[in-house]
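quick one
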Amino acid sequence: MNPIVRIQPRNADLGDGMLVRRTLPNRQQRMIGAWCFLDHAGPLQFEPGKGMHVGAHPHIGLQTFTWLIEGEVLHRDSLGNEQVIRPRQVNLMTAGHGTAHTEVSLRDGERLHAAQLWIALPPQHKDCAPAFDQYPVLPRWRDGGAELTLLAGRYRQREAPARIHSPLLGIDIACEEASELALELDPGFEYGLLPLVGKLGVDGEIIDTDELAYLGKGRRKLHLALPAGARVLFLGGEPFDEPVLMWWNFVGFGKADIAQAQAAWEQGDARFGTVGDGRTPRLVAPPLPWRDGNREARPA
Ligand code: MN
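structure w/ manganese (II) ion:
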C-alpha cells in the first residue's frame, strides 16, 4: 500500500487581503479524481465593514463546488442566478463552455468558514451548457460520535444529489466529542483527507489542520481518530484519465482552450455573459504564462 503523502497548504490572496489555504493543485498532487482545486477559508471573523468581495470572473471546463460551514455568501452569475449560499447546502455552478460570477459576503463583519472546490469536467462535458444548481438537502447520518454528510457521489447505499460527470466522492465529517471512525474505500479511487478544524489521526498517523493527506489507489478501509470538535473533508475519485491544464480560473485540455477563453474574457465577449447590471468590477486575467517562457500553468 502506498504511504500517506502529506501536502502542505500555501496561502492565496482572494483580494482585500483575504487569505485562504490552498492544497490543490499542488506540485506533489494536482488532482484527487476530478477534484482539481481546494481552498479552505477561515474559520474567521471579519472586521466591521470587511468581508469577502470577489468581483466578476469567468470559468470554463469545471464545476465550482461551494461548501459553507459558517457565514452567508451571495452568488450572482451571468445566467441570472442570484442565490444566497448557506451552511449545510451544496452549491454547484457548472461552467462548461463559459460563465461568470461574483461571490460576496451577504453582510460584512460576520464569520466565514468555507471550502471552495472545483471539479474538472471530462473532455466530453467540458463545453456543456452552463448551469447553477443548489442542493439544500443532503444525505446525513451518524456513525458513532461522528456526523457524516454526503456532498458528492455514492457511499455505501447513499447517493448525493449533485449532478457530477465522473466517479467522485465528497464527505464532510464532524464530531463534537472525540470519535473513531472506520471508512470503506473503493480500491479504484484515490483519496484525500483535509482536517479543517483540529488534527486528524489516519491509520495511526497524525495529520495537522490544513495539511492534505493524499492516499493513492488500492485501499479498502481507513481508520480515523478525530479529536473533539474536529471537522474533516474526505474527497475521492477515480484518477482522471487526461491531465487537465489549469490557468487562472480556467480548466482545459490544451493551451488553445485556455487562450481562447482568456481572449474572450479580455474582449468582453458574450461567451461569458454579464453578471447583474454589468457594473460589478471585472477581475483582470493575468498574462498567459506561455507567452514569456514555458513555466507550468498554475491558477492565480
Ligand atoms: Mn469563481
